[in-house]
Amino acid sequence: MAEIILPPKDFKKKAVIQDETFYEQGQDIETFWAERAKMLKWDQKWDQVLMRDPPYYKWFLNGKINASVNCLDRWITPGDKDKIAYIWEGEMGEVRKYTYEELYTEVNKFSNVLKNLGVKKGDIVSIYMPVIPELPIAMLACARIGAPHSVVFAGFSAESLRDRMEDAESKFLITVDGYYRRGKVLKHKQKSDEAVDKLDVSKVVVVKRGGNDITMVPNRDYWWHDLMAEADEYCTPEEIDSEDLLFLMYTSGTTGKPKGVMHSTGGYLTGVLTTMKWVFDLRDDDIYWCTADIGWITGHSYMVYGPLVAHSTSILYEGSPDYPSPARWWEIIEKYKVTILYTAPTAIRMFMRWGAQWLEKHNLKSLRLLGSVGEPINPEAWLWYYRHVGNNACPIVDTWWMTETGMQMITPLPGILPLKPGSATRPFPGVAVEIRGPSGALPPGEKGDLVITQPWPSMLRGLYKAPEKYKEEYWGKYGPEAFFTGDGAIMDQDNYLWLLGRIGDVLNVAGHRLGTAEVESALVDYPLVTEAAVVGIPDEIKGQVPFAYVSLAAGVEPSDDLKDKLMKHVSKIIGPTARPKDILFSDDLPKTRSGKIMRRVLRNLATKEEIGDITTLSNPEIVQVIRERLDKKA
Ligand code: WT7
After folding, report:
1. 508 and 484 inside one domain
2. Atom number, ligand 1, closest to the C-alpha of residue 404
3. Which domain holds residue 88?
4. Residues near ligand 1 with C-beta < 6 Å?
5. CATH of the domain at 80
6. What is the pLDDT at residue 596?
């Protein structure tokens, strides 16, 4: 029986959303979402809420709405303009604060810069920047003039940037000279040049951040500060249709070649605003911190559009969590009295590994709500987060969603739902999901595919220039009216959802379905284990069996005895079918720059197959280390 954690009484009493009838109201999706859309500033109201042409859906048809106006102009009133929008902290400790009015001015100026460079409505502008204030400024300026942005995570390689710019036929790039990571200046402009030099790119704008030596190409490259010094302070916002493209976000799919997920304007803003307020229980005096990178969908929705459209104050932090020490995050929380922290399970497990002593010296009492996103959070990490970060007093919202959904989809409403560590609980009001198997919807207790059965306003509108792939990838398996997420899940007797990871990570062991995430959770449940990744390997008799990679707490030595104990522990928690065939101990696991363990690489290493593309790994060197250890075993 899973433990149940009730929202603290005081929290519940003051919660923004206490009304459970929203869950019922959400069943009529059109009325529910139209009501929410009214929170935005529309230049022209829609004349139809939803158009279904499966698998294509449109929201708020013929409505006119500008995202930059909703994030900024509407707050330029005597009462609202002086509120801090962003508190930015650089890795080296510099601090910059922007009020809504200041941000508004910068965005207006940069909109004019873009126009002066020849950017027109509909042109796709690529942005390749670390988390510095100029990044959201550039995004909002694009939105203001109707030029969709395509932000490429700064940690990605030059090839990744080139591929994405090529696919988007993007002629404009905004980048930086360099930026800080663990005290060093990374030569970012050089990387940008490697991508751009081989493309037909007309203009590059460079923010001065690292101060490192760079090459500027005449008539192509311009300093941000030079252009801004000459720009007019006001730019009339373009008239934007609700369905106009707001941005592209490239994400890897099943095949490895990244796809440009298309997000449009009116529905997207409706989804992120509603979840921002309801899921984070957002109040006017909150200091909100999402630790993601703006280069991911999490950053787009919950560091830029969500927070600004909700008129909140957010922290932006440029650097590493362990620079100059693993206390950095806790110092930031104490210094700015952060009230809401939104982070990822992988970060939490990293902090578990470093030890609670790094937190204990800091006053984290300002925190009142914690969030998790990106992968299933194992109950052990959940409880550690709850206890050591939240002091047993902050509800945790485990938010399930994906690049394609634009907004949080399965998540608690923290003032209403009792929490179960490890469960993302229920669909957000206005969101409908089912657990499906080949013969249809499955009852509670049965594992299946997570499918979204009704359209939602911030849903992707397609894959850029890849309509066939869009149909096949998301609307192929269960038809054009059921969005296939690619995730496995199970619903318990209380209708709570437990996410089991990507389907590719769901095993079939002797006819039993088994999520690799379940085995990982059991392993991490063992006190000395800090991180585990489980993959399926073929087995003659059982079809597939789990194979585990395990990282141990600092100072713990791997041994056969420990391996045996772990195997028994998994058998005990899940059952003998879940017992890994073998365990490989490794200090580090291959991870993407967003911190996701790349299980595909681990699976192929274990099965001795081609490992494929590893350009998105943050630590590619680990691949060879693991390969050698596996070879030694064999
Ligand atoms: C995949 C989407 C959503 C922003 C970051 C990731 C996994 C995400 C959770 C969660 C279990 C989760 C899913 C999903 N995922 N959040 N709370 N619990 N799994 O965006 O890169 O598009 O990845 O992340 O497997 O399909 P993404």
Report:
1. no
2. 22
3. 9-255+262-416+432-489
4. 251, 297-298, 372-376, 398-403, 424, 485-487, 499, 501-502
5. 3.40.50.12780
6. 84
Name the closest-CA residue to atom 12, ligand 1.
375
DSSP-based three-state secondary structure for 219: coil
470 contacts 484 by C-beta, under 8 angstroms: no
More confident residue, 253 or 189: 189
Domain count, the chain: 2
Residues 513 and 395 in one domain: no
- Are the C-beta atoms of residues 248 and 167 closer than 8 Å to each other? no
CB proximity list for 158: less than 8 A, separation 6 or greater: 191, 192, 194, 195
CA 238 – ligand 1 centroid, Å: 33
DSSP per-residue codes, 53-108? ETTEEEEEET-B--HHHHHTGGG-STTTTTSEEEEEE-TTS-EEEEEHHHHHHHHH
Query: Given 489, 514, 537, which residue is the final one in a domain?
Result: 489
Task: Examine the domain organization and report whether 55 and 188 are in the same domain.
Answer: yes
Asked whether residue 498 is assigned to any structural domain, the reply reads: no
- Closest residue by Cα to residue 544 from 503, 521, 511, 504: 511
Query: Residue 124 in 3-state DSSP?
Result: coil
Atom 1 (ligand 1): residue with closest C-alpha?
A: 402
Residue range 38-51: average pLDDT? 98
Percent of the chain with pLDDT over 90: 83
Higher pLDDT, 496 or 525: 496
Question: Does any domain span residue 499?
Answer: no
Least confident of 24-28, 32-36, 318-322: 318-322
Which is the closest atom of ligand 1 to the Cα of 301? 4
For residue 303, the 8-state DSSP code is I
Quick: pLDDT tens for 210-252: 999 999 999 999 999 999 999 999 999 999 999 999 999 998 6
Residue 2 has pLDDT above 80, yes or no: no
Instruction: List the structure tokens of 200.
Output: 């037909």
Whether residue 374 sits in one domain with residue 311: yes
pLDDT at 542: 77
Atom of ligand 1 nearest to the CA of 411: 17
Is residue 342 a part of any domain in this protein? Answer: yes
Do residues 587 and 532 share a domain?
yes
Residue 1: the pLDDT is 47
What's the pLDDT band for 505 if we cut at 50, 70, 90?
A: low
Confidence of residue 259 (pLDDT cuts 50, 70, 90): confident
Let me know whether 88 and 202 are in one domain: yes
**Distance in Å, CA 376 to ligand 1 centroid:** 8
In degrees, to the nearest 5, what angle opens at C-alpha 626 toward C-alphas 622 and 632? 150
Give residue for tokens 């048809």: 61
Residue nearest to atom 3 of ligand 1 (CA): 402
The verdict on residue 425 lying in a domain is: no
Which of 300, 343, 402 to probe ligand 1 with, by most ligand atoms within 8 A of CB? 402
pLDDT computed for residue 256 by the predictor: 42
Q: How far is the CA of 590 from the centre of ligand 1 (A)?
A: 18
On whether both 199 and 341 belong to a single domain, the answer is: yes
Distance 402 CA to ligand 1 centre (A): 5
- CA distances, 184 to each of 178, 187, 216, 352 (Å): 10, 9, 22, 26
pLDDT digits (tens, 9 = 90+) for 340-350: 999 998 899 88
Residues 480 and 523 in one domain: no
Span from the CA of 564 to the centroid of ligand 1 (angstroms): 32
- Nearest atom in ligand 1 to the alpha carbon of residue 499 is 11
- Here the CATH number for the domain that contains residue 568 is 3.30.300.30
> Which of 445, 463, 489 is the last residue before a domain boundary?
489
Residue bearing the CA closest to ligand 1, atom 5: 374
